[in-house]
Each structure stands twice: as C-alpha cells, then as structure tokens.
User: Which sequence fits this backbone?
C-alpha cells in the first residue's frame, strides 16, 4: 500500500479515484455473446459454456437429482452455518417488507400506494474462482420475502458439469428451484431474453466480473432492469493510534482477496499506524491461498494520514465506500456522522466478513462512489410501487378549480377540459 501524509483538500478528489480498467475492448465480444444467446437460445448457451468454461453440457437446467444430492456432498457444520446465516438474513430483511399507505389529501380525494413484487427476477451467482453461495442467500431470501412469483438462478458449472453443491443447498434453503448452468455474459443474456429452458425475467440481480457487469449495463439499456451499477469491491477502514493493526490488516486483506481490481483504503490520524499495518499485511499475506490476487489489489490501494478525525470522516463521506469499517475509540460517534457508505461496520469486533456472510445485512452494495446516491440491496429492491387515487364528485368540486388554473397556466387546455366537463355535467 502507498502511504499519503496530510493531503491538502484540493487533492482529495484525486485520492478518491478508483482503479480504471479499459473495458471498451469488451464491447464487441459481449455484443456477440448476447446476440448468439438471443438467437440461439439453449444451444448457444451450451456452445458458449464449452468455449469459456471447458465444460460440455447436455442441458442447462439443474436436475431434481442434482438438487437432491447436494446436501449430502456438504459437511453438517457448513450446512448449519449456512442455515444460521439464512435465519439472520431473513430476520433482518423481513422487517423491510412495506405496508401499503393511504391518505385523504383533500376531502373526497383519496390517494394510496400499493407495494407489489416484481413478478419475474433473475439472480446471477458467480461460481468461478470462488463459488459465492452466500450471495444466493443475499438475493434469494429478500426475493422470496417480497413475494416474487418466479425466481430464476444462473451460475456457471464446475469442471464436473455441475454447480457447486453449496450454491444448490443455499438455493433450496431459500426456496429457489429454477436453477440453470450458465455463467458470464451469456447467463445475463439468457435471463434478459429468455431461452427454451430459461424464463425471461424483468430484473436481474447479482455481482460478477467485467463481462457480467458490462452485459448487465447492456440489458438495462434494452429494457431489463438491474439491481444497481456495479464495480470492483472496496473497503475503507477508519482507525486511530489505539487500533489493533492485525485487525486492520485482516479487514484490508479480506476485501483485497476478492480480485486484483479491488481497492482498500486505510484512513487514520496516526502517522505510526500505517507502518504497523504494513508489517501485519506482510505476515498475513504469507498464508493466504489467494496471495497473488490480494497483492495485486494492494497495488491499487493506499493508507492516508489526516490531521484529525474530522478530516477523516469528511474524506470518507466524499469517497463513499462500499464497505466502511470504523475501528476507533469513538466509533459510535463517528458512525453517526456517516452520510455516504454502502454498509458500516462499527467497533473492533465487527469485521466486514460478518456482513458478507451471516450478521443479517445484505452484502450486495453500491461501489465506485455510487453509495452517494444508491442503497444496498434490500427487500424493497424486489418490489415496485403503484399509486392509486379515487375522487368523488364533491372531491373534484373541491380540487378541480386548482387543477383548471394550473392547466390553463401551462396552456394545456385539454387537461383543463377533462376537469371542467365533469364539473359542468349533472349526475
């Protein structure tokens, strides 16, 4: 990690920049993949899986036999852990289910809003270098709680032609049975356009690599909704001189091992802390299976020393991190001053890993500064709202004159007439 000491405010914008990767070269490849799936359906998916994953499939749908055998391929301890996580995620997300609201805005004028589930949703679960079965819980549980009628899940198969059993177990636990062997941009295309086996959906959720991210952006321009803009994972850790450097290093590495394009930041008011954390990073890196990936991510990362915690929190709000860990003596007070972050982890015993897996909050969060305007995934993400209104004759008599005046002022006389004709007509 590079260390920056006491940056001037004019340089803060530059320090909030994320790693930039040229994806223009991907456009032609991804468009070709999308068109092949759109035109070729299941056949194209099977061909693309052979090309990219080096796996030959006879069908893309996961069979009932594969679903049934998955639990037996996992240890009981892991199944218990996944079940515990599912319970906590369900408990937290159940509270987010909204009630309908209704109000009489003017005598005789009633307006109400009704929450309705998005009928068909698609969940993408990465399964390459790390099968993210935790993401199944994060997406499927709120989708079920919201009441989505059709939930489609796509994940790439392993070399054995099967989806990782932990993904299948988590899907079954969450009530998802429509599961398909498809990864990358081709899976996004399949859910957006539909194939002989995979139903077309109205909104696609889930993380992925640059191919998946670009494919999601493409379908969003064509009419299929997506969960949020996505980019490489990131974490910012706010710490002071009394923070445990080993804790900090472990948090930085837990994010860095996601991918070489991940970014991690240490924000502090202590000049000595970055050196201590750097030493701990070296020690902990030695034993990491994904050491090379983490090291590459650390090249895009930095420790920044500020004059005081007021500057630290101001910079953090400007950066708007996906994950924000506050590991200081006054962590609760600083947390109250956070205005931009995807998810906040408070105190020395609240690692980001807790939110990634089992505390109950969702780990699908806005990156690349989008936390300034976007929320993390929640039950409402799977819901749409429809407004209704009903006006009685007396209600229109009360409100009509105001509508007529406003319509006339905007020179929309047909709008005015839609009210006037009713007011001038006897029942």
Assistant:
């Amino acid at each position: 990690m590079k260390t920056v000491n006491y940056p001037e405010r004019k340089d803060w914008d530059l320090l909030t920049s994320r790693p930039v990767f040229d994806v223009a070269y991907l456009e032609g490849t991804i468009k070709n993949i999308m068109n092949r799936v759109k035109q070729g359906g299941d056949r194209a998916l099977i061909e693309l899986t052979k090309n990219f994953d080096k796996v030959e499939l006879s069908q893309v749908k996961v069979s009932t036999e594969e679903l049934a055998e998955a639990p037996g391929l996992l240890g009981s301890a892991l199944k218990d852990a996944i079940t515990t996580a599912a319970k906590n995620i369900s408990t937290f997300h159940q509270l987010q289910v909204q009630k309908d609201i209704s109000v009489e805005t003017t005598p005789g004028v009633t307006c109400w809003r009704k929450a309705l589930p998005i009928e068909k949703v698609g969940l993408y679960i990465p399964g390459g270098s790390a099968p993210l079965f935790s993401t199944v819980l994060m997406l499927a549980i709120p989708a079920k709680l919201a009441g989505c009628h059709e939930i489609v899940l796509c994940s790439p198969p392993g070399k054995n032609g099967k989806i990782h059993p932990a993904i299948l177990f988590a899907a079954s636990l969450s009530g998802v049975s429509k599961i398909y062997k498809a990864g990358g941009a081709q899976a996004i295309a399949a859910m957006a356009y539909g194939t002989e086996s995979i139903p077309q959906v109205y909104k696609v959720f889930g993380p992925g690599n640059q191919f998946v991210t670009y494919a999601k952006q493409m379908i969003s321009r064509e009419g299929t909704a997506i969960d949020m803009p996505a980019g490489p994972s990131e974490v910012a850790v706010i710490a002071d001189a009394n923070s445990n450097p080993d804790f900090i290093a472990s948090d930085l590495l837990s994010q860095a091992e996601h991918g070489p394009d991940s970014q991690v930041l240490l924000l502090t008011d202590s000049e000595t802390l970055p050196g201590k954390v750097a030493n701990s990073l070296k020690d902990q890196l030695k034993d990491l299976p994904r050491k090379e990936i983490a090291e590459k991510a650390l090249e895009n990362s930095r420790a920044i020393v500020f004059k005081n915690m007021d500057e630290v929190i101001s910079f953090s709000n400007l950066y708007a991190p996906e994950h924000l860990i506050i590991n200081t003596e006054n962590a609760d007070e600083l947390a109250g001053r956070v205005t931009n972050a995807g998810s906040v982890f408070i105190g020395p015993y609240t690692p980001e890993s807790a939110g990634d897996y089992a505390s109950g909050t969702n780990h699908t969060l806005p990156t690349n500064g989008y936390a300034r305007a976007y929320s993390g995934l929640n039950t409402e993400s799977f819901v749409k709202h429809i407004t209704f209104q009903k006006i009685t004759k007396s209600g229109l008599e009360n409100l009509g004159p105001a509508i007529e005046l406003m319509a006339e002022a905007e020179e929309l006389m047909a709008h005015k007439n839609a009210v006037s004709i009713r007011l001038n007509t006897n029942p």
About this structure: The longest helix spans residues 26-53. The first strand starts at residue 2 and ends at 5.
